[in-house]
Amino acid sequence: MSNNLAVKNIAIMNTYNRFPVKLVKGKGSKVWDDKENEYLDYTSGIATCNLGHVPDQVQSRVKEQLDLLWHCSNLYEIPNQEELAELLTQNSVFEKVFFCNSGAEANEAAIKIAKKYAKDQGNPERTDIVTFKQSFHGRTGATMAATGQEKIHQGFTPLAVGFRYLALNDFESLSEISDGKTTAVLLEVIQGEGGVNPVDKEWLTQLEKICKENDILLMVDEVQTGMGRTGTLFAYEQFGVKPDVITLAKGLGSGIPIGAMLASESVAASFSPGTHGSTFGGNPLATSAGIATIESILSDGFLAEVKEKSDWFRKQLEKLRQSSNKVIGIKGLGFLVGIELTEPVGPWIDRFREKGILVLSAGANVLRVLPPLTTTKEELNQFVNVFHEIETEE
Ligand SMILES: *Cc1c(COP(=O)(O)O)cnc(C)c1O
């Protein structure tokens, strides 16, 4: 089966290899195509629809806002934006929020503030940002350069300057961070696109120590790991670190586009009127979705249930691993799950889809499974059973 629609005469630029499915409707964990086939969506629109599709609470809040005001400039006070910023800062170690529209933009904001911070601290020679191999930070000029994957750079040189890539979880190379040229370290605590690779907790503690001792900013890209995906509101909470900056997007608006960069008071002081901005960033409509999303995730027992269900799911997957010679390991945290296979993942994704389940890859051999946080044990079981069916096929 060909996944390449480039041959079709459609007016969309060919930046994605699209699966031959036209999705037209969604509710909860389910989506339907134009032929009324039902699928269990264990991609969650790539970690975006964390509350499932068209979640009631978010839908009604957005509908309310649709009747009031969709957009106004950031030249005016925006009550929804203030409320969402309050919710984000009250439930994290940060004091200030900058709103934008996507993950790449949130990381652009982090990159900019890190550069400005160095100058404001009297360290203009600190121009570099350290990132890691196999990372993913976005597709814009600077975030593509921040991404530690050659295949993403290919054809786009000259790249934005000032990025250096170290090996993740490598203790030895940590000393390169305190070279006097580095203003910030940007990393995912679990690399999503790069293969569902978690950082080693001890290594991260060591990295944080070097950052604090040298006034280098620790910036965590939580675009994929944030908003409850790993079982806590933010993934950094589970690694015992206190970052200076985090970035959010995917799950923040349940599918209504919104991004954010959160920072401590002292770092946030480096942005002032005229230094950064965004027309749409934090507009009334997008922030209404954000408010309802975070309220749902923080509602009583929600995250405890995510933890319970995802622990149970992991146990089932571990059993599959033990009985299968095609599964190397189960990676990730919460409902950010990577199943490392002994063989290419592409045919598995096709088989899952043919059997009514949508899943993703992360690199060549890792099946990436991102159930909505609201998924049921019954649905999780359906996945486990289908996995077993595919695994025992010849
Ligand atoms: C998806 C992703 C991005 C980019 O987000 P966009 O909204 O597509 O720009 C950045 N960082 C991480 C970790 C991501 O998973």
UniProtKB/TrEMBL annotation:
Reactions it catalyzes: N(2)-acetyl-L-ornithine + 2-oxoglutarate = N-acetyl-L-glutamate 5-semialdehyde + L-glutamate
InterPro entries linked to this entry: AcOrn/SuccOrn_fam, Aminotrans_3, Aminotrans_3_PPA_site, Class-III_PLP-dep_AT, PyrdxlP-dep_Trfase, PyrdxlP-dep_Trfase_major, PyrdxlP-dep_Trfase_small
Residue numbers bearing the N6-(pyridoxal phosphate)lysine modification: 250
E.C. no: 2.6.1.11
Broadest EC class assigned to this enzyme: transferase
UniProt key word Chaperone: no
Residues that hold pyridoxal 5'-phosphate according to the record: 103-104, 136, 221-224, 279
Listed cofactors: pyridoxal 5'-phosphate
Cellular compartments annotated: Cytoplasm
Coiled coil location: none
Cofactor binding, note field: Binds 1 pyridoxal phosphate per subunit.
Keyword Cytoplasm on entry: yes
Keywords (A to Z) from UniProt: Amino-acid biosynthesis, Aminotransferase, Arginine biosynthesis, Cytoplasm, Pyridoxal phosphate, Transferase
An MF annotation (GO) of this entry: transaminase activity
Pfam families referenced in this protein's UniProt entry, alphabetically: Aminotran_3
Annotated residues for binding of N(2)-acetyl-L-ornithine: 139, 278
Binding partners and assembly: Homodimer.
NCBIfam families, sorted: argD, PRK01278.1, PRK02936.1
Note: May also have succinyldiaminopimelate aminotransferase activity, thus carrying out the corresponding step in lysine biosynthesis.
Protein name stated in the entry: Acetylornithine aminotransferase
